[in-house]
Write a structure and sequence with these properties.
two-stranded antiparallel sheet; elongated; five-stranded parallel beta sheet; alpha/beta; about 10% strand; disordered C terminus; Rossmann fold; Helicase, Ruva Protein, domain 3; about 45% helix; 7 strands; 2 domains; 14 helices; single chain
């Protein structure tokens, strides 16, 4: 709605996990490098954790798009609230196997044949389970048994479990110790730091094709950081609502007042979580007004916020060095 008003080609703060908007912090770069390396090296069981809204699904989408089909086959399970039989059926269907037999024995034999053939063609087969913290112990045990498909060279099926931090507690259960022992790589992503929030805003603003400078003033960025607690999904919700407020009021610069109002609409002032209804609450308000075009507004020039101080340089971790070998270190967030 406000894209044309602010000189944008598309919505910069869309809530969908669009890989085109992927913002690579150091933790995200390491997770991307670690996942890519572990999958292509046939490490077997991989775990990715992070708080809700920190970008796990976007990172998984990036993996799906960055590894070519000539090197890997993917099966993605987005809703793990299934019975073991339903889970295996969905995994087979997403691998592109159209006719799934009813018998579990026949399904497992079909999966084994598929994995062996993919291995013969030099392809890696990858099963990705999102929202894995919702998996039950029985289903996790079934998933563990799928790693028994292997050759002397390595695992035929690579399994990625991605979920919120509760997944770590789930995997620490005594009855799942055999599964925990098979985890080859553990990766984690965290909320954005205050410095990263500003870089994140500028990154997405540029990716949306902006022809003007970022409209958020310094005090607005401070408010976004405070109310979002560094969670990218919440940052998107606050910014989207604030832009709608500015559009409805006919202003081109956003300050602390609009950010606070957007956070209040999203029930964030008291530590609440935004709801789907709240995230669109400003649509009707914006439609009631015909704002003055931004080019006709009499306003001071764009306020340029000095770049934040970067943290002290530390020795690259093992995953960062993997990233260098995979050509991922060159990916930066500078815009």
């Amino acid at each position: 709605m406000y894209e044309q008003y602010f000189g944008l080609r598309k919505n910069p703060f869309v809530m969908a996990p669009d890989p085109a908007f992927l913002f690579l912090t150091a933790a995200h770069r390491e997770a991307l490098a670690g996942l890519t390396y572990a999958v292509l090296s046939r490490k077997g069981f991989l775990v990715l954790t992070g708080e809700a809204g920190t970008g796990k699904t976007t990172l998984l989408s990036t993996i799906l798009h960055s590894i070519p089909a000539s090197r890997a086959n993917f099966s993605l399970v987005l809703n793990p609230m299934l019975t073991p039989a339903e889970f295996l059926e969905l995994a087979l269907l997403d691998f592109g196997i159209p006719e799934v037999p009813v018998s579990k024995a026949q399904r497992l034999m079909l999966l084994q044949q598929y994995l062996v053939e993919a291995h013969r063609q030099g392809k890696v087969s990858v099963l990705i389970v999102d929202e894995a913290h919702k998996l039950g112990p029985d289903l996790l045990e079934e998933i563990r048994l799928l790693t028994n498909f292997e050759t002397a060279e390595g695992k035929l099926l690579q399994i990625v479990l991605a979920g919120q931090s509760e997944l770590n507690a789930l995997l620490a259960r005594q009855d799942l110790r055999q599964l925990k022992q098979r985890i080859a790589v553990r990766l984690a992503i965290r909320p954005l730091t205050p410095a990263e929030v500003e870089h994140y805003l500028r990154h997405r603003w540029a990716r949306a094709g902006a022809s003007a400078d970022l409209p958020f003033r310094a005090e607005a960025i401070e408010g976004i950081t405070r109310w979002s607690q560094g969670i990218p999904r919440v940052v998107n919700a606050i910014c989207d609502n604030a832009l709608l407020l500015a559009y409805g009021a006919g202003v081109s610069s956003i300050g602390a007042e609009q950010i606070r109002e957007a956070a209040q609409d999203l029930d964030l002032l008291n530590g609440g979580a935004p709801t789907a209804a709240a995230s669109t609450a400003r649509v009707e308000v914006a439609e009631l007004r015909v704002p003055t075009p931004a080019s006709a507004l009499v306003a001071p020039g764009p306020i340029r916020v000095p770049p934040p101080k970067l943290p002290r340089q530390v020795k690259p971790s093992l995953l960062a060095r993997w990233a260098g070998k995979l050509g991922l270190v060159a990916a930066t967030n500078k815009i």
